[in-house]
């Protein structure tokens, strides 16, 4: 699926669809739940909206063909956007770096870091400058 139209942001139209699903989950569930509950609800919302995704996507990290370990991203959406969800109050450097590591390991351009909190949904676009 190509991203047409909104060219202000990398994958602008695709991320708008993802963000719509994120807000719907928060509008229905509110705040205070465990991360796994938001993840389960988001998987259901992606399915209802026919947004293609893989849940708990495994990323293999290697160095010159040697396996170094694995990362696990909450969602891999549209075969190009990793989405990592948290229920924290703010974005930490560690969370931002973790999402950037996913992008580098997968050679991708954009990832979304999402917080479900008392003040609503907060979304940080993480761009991999290759």
Structural overview:
There is one protein chain. With 130 residues, the protein is an alpha+beta fold. It has a single domain (12-127), classed as Trna Endonuclease, Chain: A, domain 1 (3-Layer(aba) Sandwich), CATH 3.40.1350. Helices cover 35% and strands 35% of the residues. It has helices spanning 12-29, 35-48, 93-106; strands spanning 53-63, 66-77, 81-86, 110-117, 120-127. A five-stranded mixed β-sheet has the order 1-2-3-4-5, sandwiched between helices. Strand 4 (110-117) and strand 5 form a beta hairpin. The longest helix is centred in the N-terminal third of the chain and has 18 residues, at 12-29. The chain is globular. The chain starts with 11 loop residues before the first helix and ends with a strand.
Span between termini: 22 Å
Report Rg: 15 Å
Q: How many DSSP-defined strands? A: 5
Name given to the CATH architecture: 3-Layer(aba) Sandwich
Written as H for each helix and E for each strand, in order along the chain, the element string is HHEEEHEE
Global shape:
globular
Q: Describe the strand arrangement of the main beta sheet, using strand numbers.
A: 1-2-3-4-5
Number of helices: 3
How much helix, percentage-wise, in residues?
Answer: 25-40%
State the secondary-structure class: alpha+beta
Q: Could you say what the CATH topology is called?
A: Trna Endonuclease, Chain: A, domain 1
Q: Major sheet, described briefly?
A: 5 strands, mixed
The averaged pLDDT comes out at 90
- CATH C-level: Alpha Beta
Strand content: 25-35%
Count the domains: 1
- Unreliable runs, pLDDT <50, ≥5 residues? 1-6
């Amino acid at each position: 699926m190509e991203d047409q139209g909104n060219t202000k942001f990398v994958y602008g139209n695709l991320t708008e669809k993802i963000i719509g699903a994120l807000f719907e989950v928060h509008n229905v569930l509110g705040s205070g739940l465990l991360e796994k509950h938001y993840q389960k609800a988001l998987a259901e919302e992606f399915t209802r909206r026919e947004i293609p995704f893989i849940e708990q996507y495994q990323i293999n990290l290697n160095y010159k063909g040697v396996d170094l370990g694995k990362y696990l991203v909450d969602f891999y959406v549209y075969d190009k956007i990793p989405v990592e969800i948290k229920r924290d109050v703010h974005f930490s450097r560690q969370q931002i770096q973790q999402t950037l590591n996913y992008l580098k390991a997968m050679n991708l351009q954009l990832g979304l870091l999402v917080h479900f909190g008392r003040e609503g949904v907060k979304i940080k676009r993480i761009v991999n400058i290759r």
